[in-house]
Amino acid sequence: MKDLLCDHFQETVGELLIRHKSILDVLSKLDEASARVHRSTIKAVTQCGCLKIDAKKPTIPEDATLWQLKEIFNSHLKGELCSNCKDTIEKEMGRLLFYLAALCNHLDINLYDVFIKEQKTLDTLNYFNFT
Ligand SMILES: [Zn+2]
Fold first, then answer.
1. Of residues 48 and 73, which shows the higher confidence score?
2. Does 131 have pLDDT greater than 80?
3. For the chain, what are the domain ranges?
4. Over residues 101-125, mean pLDDT
């Protein structure tokens, strides 16, 4: 069973993508969109200040259990996104999804199938998938 929302999104992208239809444009716009997600996240720290980054090298005991590792490794983020930053980041993520769907269209890949395959991989690997 296909996901209707995901398929509809991918079809809409296909209908709207006119100006940047070349695979070269899609690939470069996908990279640009990714960079804009990064940039808007960084701006939440450096311009707005609703988020802070507090990072240092973790100390990992040799006999640390998996559950202890989950406590040791963290996002290094402090605070919460304000509504303005959240809105901006969501818009940039939307553009990222747009160009990912466009790439899927060009390569005849169903975006929902990508989600399903990745979910199956995660389910199979479970905690052995340390990324
Ligand atoms: Zn903010």
1. 48
2. no
3. 4-126
4. 94
CA of 79 to the centre of ligand 1 (A): 10
User: Rounded to the nearest whole angstrom, what is the distance from the C-alpha of residue 83 to the centroid of ligand 1?
Assistant: 7
- Ligand 1 centroid to 92 CA: how many Å? 15
How far is the centre of ligand 1, averaged over its atoms, from the C-alpha of 65 (Å)? 36
* pLDDT for 17: 85
In what helix (H) or strand (E) does residue 108 lie, and over which residues does it extend? none
Please say whether the dihedral angle defined by the alpha carbons of residues 109, 114, 117 and 118, taken in this order, is positive or negative: positive
The structural architecture, per CATH, of the domain 4-126 is Orthogonal Bundle (1.10)
Helix pair angle (83-106, 23-43), 10° resolution: 160
pLDDT at 21: 86
**In the 8-state DSSP scheme, what is residue 76?**
-
pLDDT reported for residue 31? 98
**Distance from the alpha carbon of residue 101 to the mean position of ligand 1, in angstroms:** 28
What is the identity of the amino acid at 45? V
Residue 76 CA to ligand 1 center (angstroms) comes to 17
